[in-house]
What we know:
Layout (H helix, E strand, L loop, with lengths): L1 H17 L6 H16 L5 H6 L2 H12 L2 H23 L7
Amino acid sequence: xxxxxxxxxxxxxxxxxxxxxxxxxxxxxxxxxxxxxxxxxxxxxxxxxxxxxxxxxxxxxxxxxxxxxxxxxxxxxxxxxxxxxxxxxxxxxxxxx
Length: 97
């Protein structure tokens, strides 16, 4: 499970570095502070901490708007994961992991 949290942290940090000049400075600093605080509290809260970092979603929208193939790949993967998790949940599995 720590590998998943490390992957989420690294993906979030790389997205923040990509968008440092594309989002407002205050948003970028706030996101960096929350990421560093969450990284220090390493008890499996990285996913929950990143889920509320709206500047990362703004940055992801900027990144996806520049590449049509990447956009389509993300939409396709998200649709497949939605279907997979919906089926798993309907069969009684806990999917929030």
